[in-house]
Design brief:
Length: 418
């Protein structure tokens, strides 16, 4: 116990040096580097968490969190009992028919990914069909003009993404032709596609540029006409009461509705989801090099201390200190420096992120939605990972200085001083 106290006392003494402060100025650069590395790691991971959650909200706000469909891509027959069962479990559910159709105005055509919906049910799932609260707020999803609740939509109406509406130059009340890309209607003039004349009932913002430029909504009856359905749909969209854990609800629905295919939001755009996860990992690795560079300062600081205190270390060996005791001494010194830097990094990064979360000083461009505050989400797992990785790099960085302790020969040093 006394030897452990003496090792800690010597470690603090070497950190203090000839000065009167707790840490000698020569170690400030090491602490600053560690602090900067930890701050960068925490800030990057928290912002990437926020961006991932923002994308998730935009995807699930337009589509849903969970999709339930028949195996093999077959249509779901008689969906109403299935919807009622999901509603009884506390979920919001709505049937959907998905079709790739063509919009025509005069001699111009545009492709659209068209969703046949029941507006009374689907408006409880899709935020893109909610009345938009404000044009300048952070809520970017919602209907910009018109609506889907009245007969304007249910009687051969259509809701267009604002990017698609802008490309067509369509406004609420304009008439368009909706065509099937498949020529399957026999006539005296040959095979022709199915055609419906629709009137623009609403223009919405989905919050995702690619959705705004391709998505449209029509009543279920219109979509069923193009697919040739009578009482079938393609799948059921489901919204859970707790949006923070869709995987848990996906597992629950899968266990309750055996034989049905159940997917969560990450399957809707698997490439985007994988890219977000890889980007977070890549940014973490890049920022980790900041800490690795700071560890070089720690290595140099330890080597300098060993060189300066070589005679004292030789005397300590002569007085009974073993090589492992000297290793502990410099290990304590390294851990003290790392701990100070890590704590400062955690405090500074948390303060910066709280300021960003509260005041939104940094913004990112979202096209026509305007600049939006950079999102921030704290994660205890990320904090723990950063701390553990930081200590691991610290331990690795002092391996070389500790190896130098083997070269200290107490007898030779004593002879040199006599």
């Amino acid at each position: 116990m006394e030897k452990n106290r003496s090792k800690l006392w010597l470690a603090l003494k070497y950190l203090r040096g000839q000065g009167h402060g707790f840490i000698n100025r020569s170690h400030w650069l090491t602490i600053a580097g560690i602090t900067l590395g930890v701050t960068a790691l925490i800030c990057v991971t928290s912002v990437m968490n926020g961006l991932r959650e923002d994308v998730r909200q935009r995807i699930t706000g337009t589509l849903s969190e969970i999709k339930l469909s028949a195996p093999g891509g077959n249509p779901v027959p008689h969906p109403r009992p299935l919807v009622d069962s999901l509603l009884a479990l506390g979920y919001q559910a709505a049937p959907v028919i998905r079709s790739e159709l063509i919009l025509k105005q005069d001699d111009r055509i545009w492709s659209t990914l068209c969703f046949g919906i029941d507006p009374a049910l689907h408006s409880k799932i899709s935020a893109a069909l909610h009345p938009r609260p404000s044009a300048t707020g952070s809520e970017v999803q919602g209907i910009l003009s018109g609506g889907v609740e009245g007969p304007e939509f249910t009687d051969n109406g259509i809701a267009l993404g604002y990017g698609l509406a802008a490309e067509i130059n369509a406004r609420v009340g304009d008439e368009l032709q909706l065509l099937s890309p498949v020529f399957d209607v026999p006539t005296a003039f040959g095979m022709l596609p199915k055609v419906r004349t629709v009137r623009v009932a609403a223009i919405f913002n989905a919050g995702m540029p690619e959705y705004n430029s391709t998505f449209s909504f029509v009543p279920l009856a219109t979509a069923a006409f193009f697919r040739g359905y009578t009482d079938e749909v393609d799948y059921i969209e489901v919204k859970s009461p707790d949006a923070s854990s869709p995987q848990r609800h996906t597992s629950r629905i899968r266990s309750l509705f055996k034989g049905w295919q159940v997917e969560d939001w990450s399957a809707y755009d698997a490439n985007l989801y994988s890219a977000l996860r890889f980007e977070k990992f890549l940014m973490f690795v890049i920022m980790l090099f900041t800490y690795v560079i700071a560890s070089f300062n720690l290595t140099g600081s330890m080597l300098k201390t060993i060189a300066q205190k070589k005679r004292e270390l030789g005397l300590l060996k002569a007085f009974g200190y073993r090589e492992t005791d000297l290793r502990d001494l410099f290990l304590y010194q390294s851990l003290i420096l790392a701990t100070i830097g890590i704590i400062l990094g955690l405090v500074i990064s948390t303060a910066l992120l709280l300021v960003q979360k509260r005041f939104g000083l940094l913004s990112m461009g979202m096209g026509d939605a305007g600049p939006l505050p950079l999102p921030v989400i704290f994660s205890f797992q990320d904090y723990l990972t950063v701390v553990l990785v930081s200590y691991f790099i610290t331990l690795v960085s002092v391996i070389l200085p500790l190896q130098r302790l083997k070269r200290i020969k107490p007898i030779e040093l004593i002879r040199q001083t006599t």
